[in-house]
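Lab notebook, bench 4. Still working through the backlog of constructs that have no structural model yet. Next entry is a single chain of 194 residues. Request: give me the structure tokens for it.
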Amino acid sequence: MVLGMCPALAVTSTFEGAFGMGILVMIILTLTNTTVSSIRKFVPNTVRIPSYVIIIATEVTVLKMVVDAFAPALAAELGVFIALITVNCVVFGRAEAFASKNKVIPSMLDGLGVALGFAISLSLIGFVRELFGTGTIQLGQVLPLGFEYTLFSGLGLESYAYSVLVQPPGAFLVIGFLLAIITAFRQSKKGAKK
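Model written out:
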């Protein structure tokens, strides 16, 4: 999962960008798993991988057109990273490892579940980066919510913002910090069981 997040980390400088990318990956992963599972018995092994690439690329292209039409601010925020969903190893890996070997409903649920975890992870990284990097969370500037709102404004957090977190290296700092917290939590649970 962490390896699949690397290209997407560039869009996690804001919560909305990260959440938007998570939703797009959720749509693509669910559609891809459903499609691959539906045609798994008809695709020969010799052309399996190229067919997955074509399926994913087609779905991503259609989704990009929809986002361009209905959420232009999100399309501008994510830019080329929407197209990079095509080569995301999480999407391709689930198509190969699970959807190609299982029925449609379990494959669809697998795609939805994995993508939900991916979306939550990206959103958490975006939330931490934006909050600690700017002192606020902006809503409605990228996603077409119909309103704009700023969370945590007026609390004085802006004075303590660490601006490197909203720059590219900030993604790696935040993911490293979050992984350290998760590892420490798991270690403490192992210690408590003994």
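Notes after review: Helices lie at 2-5, 15-39, 48-70, 72-78, 89-97, 104-134, 168-193. The longest strand covers residues 137-139. Flag for follow-up if needed.
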